[in-house]
Amino acid sequence: MKQLFLILLFLCSISAFSQDKINIKKLSYGVTVSPIIPVFPGFTSKGYISDKLKPNMGLNAGIYASFNKQKNHLYSKALYRYLLYKAIDNNFKVSSQDVNLQIGVKRSLKNPANTNFVIAYSPSFNINTTETYAGRQFDSFPPPNNLTKQLSNRFSNSVYIGLEFEYKDKGTMEVGYTHSLKRTYFENRVDAVPHHFSFAYNLNFNAKAEISKDIIELRSTLKRLENDTLYFINKTCENELPNIDLEKLLNTHYAFSNFKVVKPNELVNLKKQTNVIMFALVGAHYASDGDIPSTGIFLLDKNLNNLEYPYPHHVRLKYDFNSNTKQCIESIENAALLIRKLNSELEEAKKL
To answer: How far apart are the first and last CA of the chain?
Structure first.
């Protein structure tokens, strides 16, 4: 059984990390608190373990860190665990204290959203196990008995599996199960960490660093654009806004990056250049698939497809489109307004 769990953990780790190149996007760290409930499956020669040992709620608390790389996370926890259960036959309660680690991976699930599957290797070292008489306290009641030196499995190995539910940026809720790979049950105690369920809350101290993949991509692209050139494609109505006038307006109202107004015959070569970041189409265009054409400035990728969220992918004029059947800009003032809006939205997007 031990070999089977270790093989499963190894295969899951390989599967998770083989699907993405190593590209750490964000770090979260903080404190974690977890009520735990021991379970006692199986039986001995004298009956079922669950008839001999009665669980009480325990606690696992400590610190954690998680590195996110796209859909996968590397994570670890350093914890102190306190367990309490009662031996029914001799009326003793057993308290167990250990330090333990969790070292594993998390994999984001498509459904339900904001949920991660967690699997981890969890070694632990017992620092104290004591049995105390749980009956009425008479003068002759048995004194507490330290069982620590009697344990043959003070160093235990376990496998943890669970589901983590992300809650905004402040933290996550986690439900899991820890399975001990080696343990021995006696009528009055467990020689190792018993199996147990846990319900954890992970409080994130680095919430401001929790940045989505889209925002990271946006910041990176806009940073590159600031130091490069935005290529404008003039698709305004005929004779409405000649290229020379568009350049004058851009010189006056656009400051986010360098710019160049390109002719249609230049597009083929520009699309082949690896350093081209995006285009800006001025005139009538579709804001998205299935949308009716409207008048504005639309940001396109190097393949001339519409950019999507989270970019400020278009700015449009606000007027009655039914009265503008040709979808023209209609005035220099409208063109200047669109350029100012584009520049302003790019500056705001940079702050995300």
So the answer is: 49
Q: Which residue stretches of the chain are H helix?
A: 2-18, 49-52, 213-226, 243-253, 267-272, 332-350
Q: Which amino acid is at 243?
A: N
3-state SS, residue 64: strand
Residue whose entry in the numeric block shows the structure tokens 């249609």:
264
* Residues 127 and 244 occupy one common structural domain: no
Residues 6+ apart with CB under 8 A from 257: 225, 226, 227, 228, 229, 230
Q: How far apart are CA 304 and CA 314, in angstroms?
A: 13
> Has residue 69 got a pLDDT over 50?
yes
Q: Do residues 193 and 240 share a domain?
A: no
Residue 147 CA, chain-centre distance (Å), reads: 42
pLDDT for res 85: 82
In this prediction, residue 206 carries a pLDDT of 81
Contact 179/173 with Cβ under 8 angstroms?
no
Question: Do 83 and 96 contact (CB within 8 A), yes or no?
Answer: yes
Mean pLDDT (the chain, rounded): 80
Identify any residues that bridge with 146 across adjacent strands, giving them in sequence order: 130
- The mean pLDDT value for 330-336 works out to 90
The identity of residue 232, as a single letter, is: F
Query: How many other CB atoms sit within 10 Å of the CB of residue 134?
Result: 15
- The DSSP letter of residue 238 is T
Q: Is the pLDDT of residue 9 over 70?
A: no
218: left (phi over 0), alpha (psi -120 to 50) or beta: alpha
Q: What are phi and psi of 338, to 5 degrees?
A: -60, -45
Q: Do 77 and 145 belong together in one domain?
A: yes
Residue 153 CB partners (closer than 8 Å, separation 6+)? 126, 182, 183, 184, 191, 192
Which tokens sit at 271? 């699309």
Considering the chain, what percentage of its residues have pLDDT values greater than 70? 78
CATH number of the domain to which 200 belongs: 2.40.160.20
Q: Which residue range(s) make up the domain with 329? A: 214-350
